[in-house]
Amino acid sequence: MSDHAANMQVAIQEALRARGLCHPNPAVGAVIEHQGTIVARGHTQAPGGSHAEVEAIQSFLDQGFVPDKSTILYVTLEPCCTHGRTPACTDLIMRRGFRHVVVGATDPNPLHAGKGFTLLKAAGVTVESGVCEAECADLNPAFNHWMETGAPLFAAKIATTLDGRIATRSGHSRWITGEAARQDVARWRRAFPGIAVGGGTVVRDDPQLTSRPEGEPLWCPWRLIFDRAGLCLTQPDRQVFSDTFAARTIYITSELFQKRIPEIWRERGVQLWTACDWADIRERCLASSITGIYVEGGPRLLGDLLRARQLHYLFAYRAPVWLGDAEALGPFSGFAPESMDHAFRLNAVKLEHFGADQLMRGEIIYPDCS
Fold this sequence. Notes:
With 370 residues, the protein is an alpha/beta fold. It has helices spanning 4-16, 52-62, 89-95, 115-122, 133-137, 141-149, 179-189, 199-205, 239-242, 263-268, 278-287, 299-307; strands spanning 29-34, 37-43, 72-77, 100-105, 126-128, 153-160, 194-198, 222-226, 249-253, 271-274, 292-295, 313-318, 345-354, 357-365. It contains 12 helices and 14 strands.
């Protein structure tokens, strides 16, 4: 008898291979079991390319296999049922004679949710859904939020000591967490089309803001630099403005500093956005197909997002070290709640461990200050 959960785990690993390649589309994985053995796999290709089901089915057919009663298609997300850049996957499944489909998560688009299942069942296909559902849905936080709300997902990442500090009072922060936790950060970066930091972080740390998890190719998301004070203009050769991915950098500042933008930035393809408000930032992100942003600080940027109630999700890594210094740098600033009733909280919390380090992540719940 087929082990649906085990086979879906293989499909999840296949979906992870698509992260960073297919934005703004969801990362989806598919595998085909035939006569008790997984014989074909596939994952979402770049926009305009094949979906995971198409890749797996084509691999299956190329090997000379023909679907029979033992054949089961596993896919992490409900197969699409409408014709967009590519034909509907439900049509291909039915046309090629697959009679058993096992699915992880339902399509989060309210206009499509469940329709793929209905079409397949109407054609006589056995459909089982909800296998490893939470894990499958967790593959695409930005896509899910975009489909459900029509807005980009703003998620923050912090790495703190036990006493809640992200750096010493002198600004030294490398490294608070260990290598395993930092590898997890690199993996989550691939789940978001964009990464954001403040200008102070660029000046102080000179981050590259790319992702290269162990065993994976180097990938560069859109890199959004929020610098309303023009701090980066004093050090224009930081990596995000001078490396081979400079055209993937978006510099966001006030009109006051527009005339001071180095010409070499324009030559390298650095984009310039004038900062207005978060509603404007959201619209500009959507116009650029940036459906999610992984915000990695600094404290002023994170505080600004919280005050505007625009931060939706938090990844909080914590290491078993502490500084014991009240003047050391914290991850957020600008708040003075008078009671725990006014504290920010996390909902739908997930806990993970990476060596001695812990990750707590979840949806941000804002206090009712009325």
